[in-house]
Amino acid sequence: MTSARFSDSVARPIMGEGPNGAFVRGCWVLVLCLVVAPLRARAEDPRHPDRPRAPLRDIDALPTGSRDDIAAARLQVLADARYQLSIRLPLLDNQTLASKEELAELRRIAISGRHARIRILLHDPAAALRSDHRLVALAQRLSSAIEIRMPVDEVDLASTSSFVLNDVGGYLFLPEADRAQGRAARDNRPAQAPLQQQFDEVWDRSERASVLQPLDL
């Protein structure tokens, strides 16, 4: 609907017909053209970086029906993160957090500033060390921001789930880490919250991965 049509539809029933009504409607059109339209255009103009970005919608789910989907979802969660990540992996294989893109995002987060913090729970850090996983080398170089712990409680070690959580409500959750089936979203804090609580509880009762100490981690 154009400004003129909109003004006419609003002003006509308010101002009525006749010379005075027509004059007022004309003034209304002028206000829309000179004031409202430029402000609306500015609000929609992406060239204005001072305008706050609209938050990601909670319904922005990510597909997780295949291994390729899961890899893409994991990378998206990493790319959306600002300063912090919480990652739980029963097993760190060479297909997880090993691509150039994933490592680049991890490095970006780790050097993002004083609030940077990447916490990783590995059930078997010795296996990651033996396989010379690229994440180990990155954690060695950026040990002030990347911390690795190992669960010690039998219940925690028996869990087969894995997840990646960021600080903007994004998550990837796999009930069974070795199966390509789960759920993910770029921004769904209600769904992420119980995972974050679970991670924090396990983190608090886990121990530093001492097997990685020879690498000064």
Describe this structure in words.
With 217 residues, this protein is an alpha+beta fold. The protein folds into 2 domains: 3-44; 61-210, Endonuclease Chain A (Endonuclease, Chain A), CATH 3.30.870. The chain contains 8 helices and 8 strands. The chain has helices at 3-15, 19-44, 67-80, 100-110, 125-130, 134-141, 154-158, 189-204; strands spanning 61-62, 84-89, 117-122, 146-150, 162-166, 171-174, 183-185, 207-208. Strands 1-7-6-5-2-3-4-8 form an 8-stranded mixed sheet, sandwiched between helices. A hairpin with a 4-residue loop joins strand 5 (162-166) and strand 6 (171-174). Helix 1 (3-15) crosses helix 2 and helix 3 packs parallel to helix 4 (100-110). The protein is globular and about 85 Å long. The model is unreliable at 2-15 and 35-58 (pLDDT under 50).
Brief descriptors of the model:
217 residues, alpha+beta, Endonuclease, Chain A, globular, disordered N terminus
Strand-helix topology:
Layout: H1 3-15, H2 19-44, E1 61-62, H3 67-80, E2 84-89, H4 100-110, E3 117-122, H5 125-130, H6 134-141, E4 146-150, H7 154-158, E5 162-166, E6 171-174, E7 183-185, H8 189-204, E8 207-208
Parallel strand pairs: 2-3, 3-4
Antiparallel strand pairs: 1-7, 2-5, 4-8, 5-6, 6-7
